[in-house]
Amino acid sequence: MCLGVPGEIVELNADLPEFAEAEVNGVRRAVNIGLLEPGTLTLGDWVLIHLGFAMAKIDESDAKATLNFLR
User: Fold this and answer.
1) What is the pLDDT of residue 1?
2) 68 vs 63: CA distance, rounded Å
């Protein structure tokens, strides 16, 4: 079974624009954002993360509902 988890973008990397820091349940990790349209993410955006890749930008309410379900 594959599982994508929501993460909030907390840092964008100017030196490596295909990477960002995302926070999932208080844990920060590097996430590859290269699959998303360049320039579409800002701090505070939510993404669906699977195997270290941001697969899609998602709505904050959907992200929080998914995190509550996973808890």
Assistant:
1) 56
2) 9
